[in-house]
Structure prediction request, 221 residues.
Amino acid sequence: MSAGQARIELVSSAANVAQMPETKPQAAEPHIAYLSRMVTDGSDEAAWLRARSRGITATDVAKLNSVNAIPTAALEKLRGSSFTGNVYTDHGKAREPVIAAWVKENFSIEPSSALFHSEAESRHLATPDGIGVVEETLILAEIKTSQKPFEGVPAGYLRQVYWQQYVLGAERTLFVWEQHENFVPVSDTPKHIWIERDERAIRDLVYLANGLIGELHRLTN
Prediction:
């Protein structure tokens, strides 16, 4: 996948992007700096959900394909979701630990349910599916299941990946997906692709996320 294919288009001026702060971690040891920014380890789901509600998560950012998406995303964030899951999400939850074990065995990336905040902004949050360090480089994993084959990584998932890389300070992400037919995996092993960090895409997302924070503030004050 080329950087051009992975880049997110944003309706904004070059000046706005140029004014964004540096998004790469500044710590002396960036591959472990994320540990000090854990909000919750995810073992208490209620606490995890409360913490997520107080910031902008990868799920929120996935909806932000342009500045025009901010008002709708803000209303959805405030109102919450009535969606409690279906057979597809249940299947995904059941398969994720199995796929995560495969990722750990083959790529030394540990499963994770912890929530972290970014170095620059405590309201910028992310929960990657896996975290690993290889040769002092922080890498992540993101796991999906799908009834349909992927023709490349869907744009919303790319936004999630880039956001997680930004929040934790990671350099690359192993994007893993398992296709199923009638909830039976079509292959013995899932498919995967490495997604490299893209600073321009990250700056675009930070700009949009801050716009979402501003809209939430406007609606609640």
Remarks:
- Residues 13 and 200 are 13 Å apart (CA to CA).
- The chain has a mean pLDDT of 87.
